[in-house]
Amino acid sequence: MTDNRCGFVALVGRPNVGKSTLLNHLLGTKLSITSRKPQTTRHNLVGIHTIGSTQIVYIDTPGIHRAQARAMNRYMVSQAFTALRDVDLVILLVEARRWTEADDEVLRQIDKSGSRCICALNKIDRMHGREELLPIIDDVRQRFDFEEIIPISALKSEGLDSLTDEIVRRLPIGEHMFEPGDITDRPTEFFVAEIIREKIMRRLGDEIPHRIAVALERYVVKSHIVEIDGVIYVERKSQKGILIGKRGERLKAIGQDARRDIEELLGERVMLRLWVKIKSGWTNDDASLKVLGYQ
Ligand code: GDP
Ligand code: MG
Predict the structure, then answer these.
(1) Residue 63: is its pLDDT beyond 70?
(2) Which ligand 1 atom is nearest residue 38's CA?
(3) 188-291 CATH, one of 3.30.300.20, 3.30.70.3270, 3.40.50.10260, 3.30.420.10
């Protein structure tokens, strides 16, 4: 008989409520990329947190929104739905200050899945205090039979200890699935490509980020440096122009931002070269999605 606990916990919610920020602050490591733009998180991402005899396997998910026509959007929503079905516990993230129709939609999916659910009211750092919070908690309590309702600030790491305690209590007894030091199940190259995508998301306006994918064409570890060639795919020539910028300045800035973070991730010096290529219609083409890792 073991005293160990181990289980899967899905972080779900509409886009932009702070799921990836929460994962990073729970783990104390920047694993999942974040930005104000939708589609920042496209894949389910595993983040492993081992605390003594307990192992929590978090799954950060793309935001759940109403299914849309484009293949990329369908892929993202299906990722989130898969996570809902196969976990021991669901954390529904909402913004404390406003419950929206999109939150209702996510809640309907949780209800359908039959999973147990804790509601985390995020971004309380933007509120004026307890008085503002109490009526919100009352309102949220009417909406669903939540296991708990916990106010947090993912960004300021407030309330995360209470959240963790409530999660741990609900995990099944069982052997750990990962080594104590593991934090994820994906290879380093995945995170390198994601860092590049994050810098693009943060340096571009609202429309183009949806049309961008990043692939690594070369990744060579030498004794004093890691050499990386990355290709940024866009759908149209105009998008390529915007990404490159005047005299190549935007692409250069993206490359510098990315290199800094990649060096921190790898603990090594990095030479990063970026190219932009046009692959028309890739976001709505199943074959292209598959080649770019969205499958
Ligand atoms: P996701 O789409 O749900 O994964 O959301 P992200 O984690 O990418 O966060 C979306 C935006 O909300 C980012 O700009 C975050 O910095 C911001 N954010 C996340 N958590 C908090 C929080 O607790 N307080 C505040 N003020 N902003 C937050
Ligand atoms: Mg995210």
Answers:
(1) yes
(2) 2
(3) 3.30.300.20
